[in-house]
Amino acid sequence: MNGPQNLRAEVLDGVIGRLTLDRPKVLNALNRETLGELDCAFDGMLRNEAVRVVVITGGGEKAFVAGADIAEMAALSPMEAREFSRRGQAVLDRVERGGKPVIAMVNGYALGGGLELALACHVRIASSQAKLGLPEVGLGLLPGFGGTQRLVRAAGMGAAAEWILSGEPYSAQDALRAGVVNRVVEPDQLWEATRALALKIAARGPVAMRLALEAMRRGLDAGPTEGMQLESDAFGLAFATEDMREGTRAFLEKRKAEFRGR
Ligand code: DAK
After folding, report:
1. How many domains is the chain built from?
2. pLDDT for the residue 2
3. Which partner for 178 in 27, 155, 199, 257 could form a disulfide, CB atoms 3.0-4.6 Å apart?
4. Same domain as 172, residue 143
5. Stated pTM of the model
6. Domain-embedded: residue 193
7. Contact 112, 143 (CB under 8 A)
8. Do 120 and 156 lie in a common domain?
């Protein structure tokens, strides 16, 4: 069987799984095939025990992902559009809830479904040249891969409403001010900055990170009272792990912890 046509999957430094969406001629627009390949490759990263953190980025100089593939989307039948939407939501859901930390390395345009993909990641590091936005209303659509929900959570109602209603692309600096991205760096430092954070994350306890991500996400859905309970349940559960024993022992023995994710 042939490998993916529109995506590169690599493991770097032994622990970073990097997925590069790679259709630069159409600014890495997401068609059905690419979405399927992303689903499959991301699943591979989840199953690969060596991979502690995943980075998603775009190939070429200009774009992270310029959205859903408008040419393909325009020709979909209603049933195909429903399938496309379901698949898109499922892939992004898995990115958010798969249990491994995911960093979006936003190297250029992140528009529509592209920004929605970045928002499903846990951390976003953007190039100072990136442009981000949700232009769907200009196509007579609205964000359909979770953008209305995730942008409000990242940036608050005011900024999210402005972004979604104007459909404008915003600069990386605007995105930073609005809370849409965590950090902005010069293009030539983007990989090194992302790699440094990824390596830091990769050295932490995988089970603890998984539990923390779950408590944060489920707490956002359920509200702070239930969120606090989820946190203490997760905290208690962490005490049953080898990682917790190793982490605390390593601290007391003044050495670096070697987490095994158990
Ligand atoms: N789809 C298909 N092709 C695209 C594309 C896209 N999203 N974006 C760019 N391209 C193609 C261009 O057509 C062009 O192809 P050629 O003409 O060379 O054949 C090539 O990429 C280079 O683009 P440009 O020549 O336009 O490059 P510029 O530097 O001049 O402009 C741009 C860059 C990013 C400002 C511009 O390309 C642009 O505005 N692109 C479209 C951005 C956009 O509107 N994206 C949002 C798409 S809507 C759903 C769930 C989710 C969604 C939909 C449904 N369901 C629930 C069903 C999501 C929707 C979206 O993402």
Report:
1. 2
2. 77
3. 155
4. yes
5. 0.96
6. yes
7. yes
8. yes
**Do 194 and 242 share a domain, yes or no?**
no
C-alpha of 111 from chain center: 14
Say if residue 84 is in the same domain as residue 172: yes
Q: Is residue 257 part of a domain?
A: no
The pLDDT of residue 250 is 94
The token duo for 254 is 């003044």
Task: Please check whether residue 260 lies inside any domain of the structure.
Answer: no
Testing ligand 1's pocket by substitution, the residue of 21, 25, 27 carrying the most ligand atoms inside 8 A of its CB is 27
Q: Is residue 261 part of a domain?
A: no
169 lies in the same domain as 60? yes
Which of 116, 214, 226, 253 is an active site residue? 116
Residues 105 and 118 both lie in one domain: yes
Annotation says 116 is catalytic: yes
Residue nearest to atom 4 of ligand 1 (CA): 26
What range does the domain containing 12 cover? Answer: 7-202
The pLDDT of 23-40, averaged and rounded, is: 96
Q: Which residue out of 26, 79, 92, 148 has the highest number of ligand 1 atoms within 8 Å of its CB and is therefore the one to mutate?
A: 26
Q: How large is the average pLDDT for residues 6-27?
A: 98
Contacts of 42 (CB under 8 A, 6+ apart): 19, 54, 91, 94, 95, 98
C-beta atoms surrounding 208 within 10 Å = 19
| Residue the block writes with tokens 């529109």 | 6
Per-residue model confidence (pLDDT) at position 82: 86
Which residues line the pocket of ligand 1, CB cutoff 6 A? 26-27, 29, 66-71, 73, 81, 84-85, 88, 109, 111-113, 135-136, 139, 141, 144-145
Q: Which of 170, 93, 95 is nearest to 132 (CA)?
A: 170
Answer whether residue 1 shows pLDDT above 70: no
pLDDT digits (tens, 9 = 90+) for 57-66: 999 999 999 9
33 is a catalytic site residue: no
Q: Which amino acid is at 133?
A: G
